[in-house]
Each structure stands twice: as C-alpha cells, then as structure tokens.
C-alpha cells in the first residue's frame, strides 16, 4: 500500500482537530452557537471530502500506482544500464584476455587454425616418426607451420644472421621420445633438420594418447580433434 505523505497527514490532523478548533473559530466569528456549528460542519465536510478523494477514490489509487510503477521502472532501467555496462566492461576484458591467451598459444605450431589447403612444399605430416639429423633424438610430429612462428627473441637466439633464411622455411613441432634421454620433451625444428623413419612405432611420451589413437604401420593415427586441424596429413 502506498505510504501516507505529508499532505495526507496534515489533512488527518486537521480532521481530528476540527472540534478543538471550534473554540478558536468562535473567537473570530462571534459567539452565536448556530454559526459556530455551521462553520465546524463545513470544516469537517471539507476535510473529509479531501481525505476521501485522496484515499477512497479509485482514480487516486490509480495515479499512485502509476507513479509507483514509473519509479520502479526507472530504477529497473538504471539497474539494467549498470548491469549492461558491467557485462560489457568485463566482457571486453575477458575477450581481450582470451585473445592474448590465444595469441600466446599460437606459437610453435600450437595454433588451432585449420591447415587447409596444405602447401605442396610441406614435405612431412603429423604422425610421422622423425630423427633429428644433427642431434640424433627421435620423436613424432604433432604440428607444423609454413614458416617459423615464434617470439622474435626466440628466433634471434635460434637463428643467427648466417641462418636467417631458415625462419621462412616450414617448421615442425615434435614430441621427443623419452627413451633418448634428451632432457627436453618437445622441440620446434626446421624442415631441413628432419629425417623420416618408417615402421618405428615406439615413441614414449606422456602426451602421446592426447594426440594419437594408434599406429598404422607408417605413422601414428591422429585423434579426431587433431585431424580437424590437419585434414590433409
């Protein structure tokens, strides 16, 4: 129920004080009892009429309801505006953070963008077992880039001025066979450092089952999620 405002409270006070006010009215309008009664009756009727119009009228209650709905709607609109702004702000932050994270994980052939069509100059495929020509360790290919995709600091350290041309050649991500005792679990190497081994199934690495479901005699069989990224390998 709507609250009683100051004007309504004043009207009630006037109504309740109508009889005591008769004394003061008599001081101004004479001592005739009939006159005093008429003035008092008029005061009571006027106060009661104003009170009933304010609190016993459907139109009055309808106006109060409209006012309450208007205020409530305004509050809701402000609340929704704040909520939308908050969601937008944190959504933008989340999107920005997600983009940065995706960018960070796109290095070293870890990007999930689909490699299709596969360029003809990419000699090797995901799932093939390799041996590093110079370092001698074995492993399996789990990804490739058409050219080196790594932080600039890494590229500068990996390829001195005399080997800068290698940055523009295909690079492969390798899970290194733990049986070699090489000390590293992964590598990112240029195509010129790779020799393919056929018929060698045994590659020991804790992530093998995440990438492959088996071996077909020539290479490891990609898991469905990896096959989607490299559909032509």
Automatic annotation (TrEMBL):
<protein>
    <submittedName>
        <fullName>FBX21 protein</fullName>
    </submittedName>
</protein>
<dbReference type="InterPro" id="IPR053189">
    <property type="entry name" value="Clp_protease_adapter_ClpF"/>
</dbReference>
<dbReference type="GO" id="GO:0003677">
    <property type="term" value="F:DNA binding"/>
</dbReference>
<feature type="domain" description="Hemimethylated DNA-binding">
    <location>
        <begin position="121"/>
        <end position="223"/>
    </location>
</feature>
<dbReference type="InterPro" id="IPR036623">
    <property type="entry name" value="Hemimethylated_DNA-bd_sf"/>
</dbReference>
<dbReference type="InterPro" id="IPR011722">
    <property type="entry name" value="Hemimethylated_DNA-bd_dom"/>
</dbReference>
<keyword id="KW-0732">Signal</keyword>
<feature type="signal peptide">
    <location>
        <begin position="1"/>
        <end position="21"/>
    </location>
</feature>
<dbReference type="Pfam" id="PF08755">
    <property type="entry name" value="YccV-like"/>
</dbReference>
């Amino acid at each position: 129920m709507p609250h009683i405002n100051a004007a309504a409270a004043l009207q009630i006070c006037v109504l309740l004080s109508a009889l005591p006010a008769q004394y003061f009215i008599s001081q101004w309008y004479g001592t005739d009892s009939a006159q005093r009664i008429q003035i008092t009756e008029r005061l009571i009727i006027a106060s009661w009429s104003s009170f009933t119009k304010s609190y016993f009228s459907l139109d009055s209650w309808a106006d109060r309801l409209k006012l309450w709905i208007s205020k409530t709607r305004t509050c809701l609109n402000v609340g929704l505006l704040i909520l939308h702004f908050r969601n937008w702000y944190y959504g933008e932050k989340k999107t920005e953070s997600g983009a940065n994270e995706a960018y960070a994980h796109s290095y070293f052939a870890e990007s999930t963008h689909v490699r299709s069509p596969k360029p003809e100059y990419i000699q090797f495929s995901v799932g093939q077992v390799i041996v590093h020509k110079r370092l001698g360790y074995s492993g399996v290919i789990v990804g490739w880039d058409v050219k080196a995709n790594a932080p600039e600091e890494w590229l500068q350290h990996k390829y001195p001025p005399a080997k800068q041309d290698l940055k523009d050649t295909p690079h492969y991500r390798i899970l290194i066979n733990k049986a070699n005792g090489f000390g590293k679990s992964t590598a990112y190497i240029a195509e010129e450092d790779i020799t393919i081994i056929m018929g060698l199934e045994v590659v020991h690495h804790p992530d093998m089952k995440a990438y492959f479901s088996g071996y077909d005699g020539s290479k490891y069989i990609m898991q469905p999620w990896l096959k989607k990224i490299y559909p032509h390998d």
